Each structure stands twice: as structure tokens, then as C-alpha cells.
Amino acid sequence: MLRIRTVLWTLSVALSVVAGADFKAHNCSEVRQASIAKGFSFENVPLQEMSGDHLRVCPQGSTCCTSEMEDKFGQRSKLELENLVDETSHELRSTFVSRHKKFDEFFLELLENTERSLNEMFVRTYGKPYMQNSEVFQNLFAELKRYYTGGNVNLEEMLNDFWSRLLERMFTLLNSQYVITEDYLECISKYTDQLKPFGDVPKKLKAQVTRAFIVARTFVQGLSVGREVASRVSKVSSTPACIRALTKMMYCTYCQAMPSVKPCNNYCLNVMKGCLANQADLDPEWNQYIDAMLLVAQRLEGPFNIESVMEPIDVKISEAIMNMQDNSVQLSYKVFQGCGQPKPSGMGGRSTRGVSDVFNARFRPYSPEERPTTAAGTSLDRLRIVWSAMQHSVIDIKEKLKLFKKFWSNLPEDICKPHRVTAGNATDDDQCWNGHTKGRYFPEVLKDGLTNQVNNPEVGVDITRPDTFIRQQIMALRVMTNKLKNAYNGNDIYFQDSSDEGSGSGSGSGCTEACVTEFDFASTEAPVVGADRSGSGPMEDSAAATHPAPSAALLASLALSALALHRLWR
């Protein structure tokens, strides 16, 4: 069928040329006017048609074009294709640019306001003890921001480290009557998972924060990659064969003294499919990338969205602190039993300090009726308004992304729309330019992609030499799609923990297989105050663990009793 159509088309072209030879030469004044209207400034436009033997692209019969005009038409054709692609892809590119900026600004603002809210609340609640140890919390938010902005941060390890540092600071504050050394703190840290000083808060918060930040960072990175790929691929690099085909399609009508005749639609499609063959090859990977972006966008609306995790983080951390405060006596006893009795600090006045002296305020969540009117409260209220707008933005970007599927393979059709280039969509239109004369365009429209252009009737395409630059963009999309799919499943592609998400194992105890990893505690309510054991290995002496050393008070009591008896006997 294709061969029959091609033969018929060739015969019609030949008959048109022969018939045209019998006509008298046309006046070229219309060509001059049309050229001026298009911004050309030709010095010598022929008054009437002349022989076209000097032409290299347009038909060489009678012509209104000089060699200079044909060359200028070629330069303009290249520029017009670039402009057409730029115009057609403008909405795509502007959407990625604006949405990336909007989501990025919101996530960063959320981090800053959450840190400010926590700081103000903790200053009011805990006062001086917090201010003296505020760098622990500052480091937490600094690392969260560093992760979000692309830093090489293992979220799970970082959060485990935060809770370890917080445990060290709080244990030292709650046991200020003792000298707590670095070695002693190291012993405590090995048994954090068994002690659970902060209850279930670290385990739950780690799962929530990790998933929320992975989703937020990956989504914004995905928007950034889409922005860059769209921007780069929209900058078309035309081959000489493409420029010749474009010149023939767009401007050879000028040489034929009919500048107002537009190209046939199917003719335009074949030219554009040949010129944009490599761009069309981007489509399969682009479509998978769009699908992955839509999946991750769902997470921004679900329970793991970053706003619902970060807004109450100050409440959750404070609950963890209160949990440790409430159980400090039992916790200290277990630590002393496992790691030994630390040496007294020698400051008798401090030995009687209670927990309430260290943390002189208790925290309770605000009810809706008593929301704080401080900057912390108003900043979070403002963020809720912003987040409400962001929810609409998520819906908006999902709709936009759906429209952008198959964008690159649809590019020829979008460019060849009547209002842009062609005369119309009718394939049997006798009033359009078919590359040789005004008449029907018979060849079939080819499929998309480089390999399908092997028999393109309008553009010579070397299908054995794919565009390296486009292949690089395909690879960038492939890598990003993999990241997005991992983020949807809650996994960071760089840091995938082999343990189960909810195991609570954290960074591990730090022990080898020969190391004891469980405490063996006797059920008593008060700690046994004994001699210092900082020189012995924690939990390795089972006898000592089962039969704790006598307390200092007991030894003192026995000594006083012995002295009294000795005096009585005398």
C-alpha cells in the first residue's frame, strides 16, 4: 500500500512539474512582500520566476528564489524549529520550575519553623537544663536539613545518635551526684535498646521521620530532574538533513511563488518525526518516571507526609523526656547494676537533688482551646495554612503530571497543529504543500522513535547513531525512577537497612556474639549503692550481677556498729 501511494504521489508531482512548464512565469512581488513580513531583508528578489538550477533544496524548476534566499530560509527554518519546540514545551518546563521551587521552599520553611517551635517550647518547659544542652537538638535539625538538601546522611543512624546523645545528657543531669565518665556513657549506650529509656517514642519517630523525609527529598529531587531533563531536551540540535527537510517544508513555497500555502499535516508529521526521532525515544523512560512521581505524590497526601510528622515532633520528644524522667530511679538502678556504681562527685549538697530539681517543669500537650499565642504557635498556624495550600498543590501537580505523559512522542503532533505550521488535518487536502507542489500528500505517517525512521520519505535519519545527549537524559530518568520507587516503599536508595523497619534495632548494641546483650535484673524498687565497678567489663561478670556489691551505707553502718560494740566491751 505504501509503495502504491508513493508511486501515485511521484506521478502527481511529475505531472504538476510538466504542467507547470507550460504556464507563463509568475510574478514574484507576492514573495517579496511575504519575505518582508517575515523579517527578511533580501537585496535582490527576482521580479519574475527564473530557472532554479542554482537551488540545492527547493525544486529546481521555475523559482522566485536566489541562492542567498535559500540559504537564509535554511537558517530561519532551524531557528523556527527551535522556537516551536520551545513554545510547545513551555508549559512543561515552567510547571516543573515553579512546582520545584514551591515544594522546596515549603519543606525548608517547615524545618525552620519546627525547630523554632521546639526551641521556644523547650525553653519555657525545661529552662536552663535545655539551654545548656540545646546543641543536641540543633544538631538534629541541622542533620535533617543536610539530608533534605542532598547530604550524605544515614537518617536511621543519625536519629539513633540523637537519642544516644540525649540519653547521655539526661542521665548525667539526673545523676549529678556522681562522676559520669565517657567510658561509663559508652557502657550505657550499648544497652539503650534493652533499657528503652524513652519508651517507644524513638522507634515510632524513627519510622515516621525516615519515611517522611525520604518521600519529601525524593519528590523534590524528582521535580528537579524533570525540570533539568525538560530544559535540556527542549534545546533541539538539528542535523543538516533535518534543516534541509524543514527548509523544503516551510519556505520552498516562497520559491514556488505561493508563500501563503501551508504544508500538509501528514507531510509535517513525517518531517517532525524525522527531526525529533531521538526526543521520541525519551518517551518510554519519561512515562515510567511520571508514573513513579505520581506514586510518591500519593505519599505526600498520606500518613507519612512530612508536615504531619514534623509539626508534633516537639511534643513527641518532650513525651520521651518525661518518660525517662518518670522512670529515672528504675533506670539508674538498672544502669548501675549493668555498668557499675559510678564514683560520687564529692558535692554533698547536690547528692540530695531530686529529679524535680533538674527538670522543674512538666510538659502537657495544649488543648485546642488553649493554643499558645507565642511566635511558636503562630508560626505553626501559618504553616498549617501553607500546608493546606500545599495539599492543593499536590493535587495540581498530579493532574499536570498525568497530562505530561507521552509528551515527547506527541511533540510532532503538537507542533504540526494548523494554527502553528500546517494547512489542516485533512490527508486528502489538495490545497496544501506536499514538498513539491500544491496537492495531496500520499506517503503514510511513520511511527515514533529512531528505529522507525529508516524509511522516512522526508528526512534522512541515521538510525545506527542515537543521540548521546538524549541517551544521557534517558539514563538520568531511569536512575530517578528507581529512587522514586524506593521512596514510595519507604527505602532510601543509598541507605537501605537490612533489618525490619519496626525492629527497633537501631545501630545495634556494638557487641560481638560473645558479649551479653540482655540485663538480668533482680526485681527491687530501689538501686543498690555499691562500690565503683568502672574498671570491670559491663555485664560480663555474672556473679557480680547476681550478687551486687554491698552499698556504702551498709558498710558505714557496719563499721559504726563494730566501733560501738568495741567501746562497750572496753
UniProtKB/TrEMBL annotation:
Organism: Salmo trutta (Brown trout)
Record-given protein name: Glypican 6b
Gene: LOC115155513
UniProt feature coiled coil, ranges: none
Biological role stated in the UniProt entry: Cell surface proteoglycan.
Pfam families noted in UniProt: Glypican
GO cellular component: cell surface; extracellular region; plasma membrane; side of membrane; synapse
Keywords: Cell membrane, Glycoprotein, GPI-anchor, Heparan sulfate, Lipoprotein, Membrane, Proteoglycan, Signal
GO BP terms in the entry: cell migration; regulation of protein localization to membrane; regulation of signal transduction
Cell compartments where the protein resides: Cell membrane
Membrane topology: Lipid-anchor; GPI-anchor
InterPro entries on file: Glypican (IPR001863)
Signal peptide: 1-20
Family stated for the protein in its record: Belongs to the glypican family.
